[in-house]
Amino acid sequence: MKPAFESTIERPVSTGERVVLLALFAFTAVAVAGYGVFGLHPEWLPTNSWATRFYSVSFPFFARLHIGITTLVLGFALWRRGGWRWIGAFVSVGMVAFLAEHIGTGYGVPFSGYAYTGLLGPKVGGRVPWLIPISWFVMAAPSYVIARHLLPGASHTLRRLGLATALLVTWDLALDPAMSFLTPYWLWETPGAFYGMPWVNLLGWAATGFVIMAVLEGWERVGPQWRLQLSPGWAAAFYLAVLLMPLGMVTAAGLWGSVAATLAALVVLRLLHPSPRSGDPSPRAAGRESEPRRPAEVVG
Predict the structure, then answer these.
(1) Which of 151, 188, 195, 203 matches a 20 to 30 Å C-alpha distance to 83?
(2) What is the DSSP string of 140-153?
(3) CA pair distance 183, 180, nearest whole angstrom
(4) Running DSSP on this structure, what letter comes out for residue 9?
(5) What's the burial of 145, exposed, middle or buried (CB within 10 Å: 0-12/13-18/19+)?
(6) Which pLDDT tens digit goes with each residue over 264-296?
(7) pTM of the predicted protein model
(8) How far is CA 72 from CA 23, 65, 154, 235, 241, in A?
(9) Contact 110, 204 (CB under 8 A)
């Protein structure tokens, strides 16, 4: 007789998880370097047909490839620790994100008016690229896992959701300038003060992000087997790897306001939420405290 489910959150990071994460960092470094050299200085491209063709193809697929790789890396880590149980959270988050984006692109709420160009590929409902809801999950998952580690237990639910939301919004401080100001992946109807982004967009991100984090919290409450099985340290490194793409782009382009805002937000969030002390309850134990007692499930 043995427990039907055992959390893998505290299990050491496997070699496979390290390898895919290092591969993501390597891809990010190459992509940012390529943008800094040739994206900002296309006149430096070799004057031959091969280089011209490569650049004309790679630029439109740049963001699509990044979303695809980050999704595969995250999916591998989730599968490695929890099988396919994460798919429920993935679909739920995607539905919330698509609804917010579909309303936003149609009615200007809650992000202000904007429209996606064709650079992110086919669109669902004629307005939202199908990769966009996936990208929300890619950054929502590590944001929630980091917050769950720093603020475990039922007594910190609202603070946990707030921190996870703030981590997600911090990403947009670099993402939006990189994807709508430096490159035309989406366009604002009425350009705002922050590199073309209206400030209300951050409120829209916060509102949407909070709902998404509440969805992930709900999966936690369904049962421990449905929680996102990620090592907190790995999740933090993955968050950084994803953030480094837009942050590297705005750094290369000299958008220092975006760089400063992103780094300042990270520093403030870190200072306000230090790592749990060694005497604090572990996330696994704190998570059990928030769950109602139930008969133990066993398998033969």
Answers:
(1) 151
(2) HHHHHHHHHHHS-S
(3) 5
(4) T
(5) buried
(6) 999 999 999 988 765 454 444 444 444 444 444
(7) 0.88
(8) 11, 11, 31, 14, 14
(9) yes
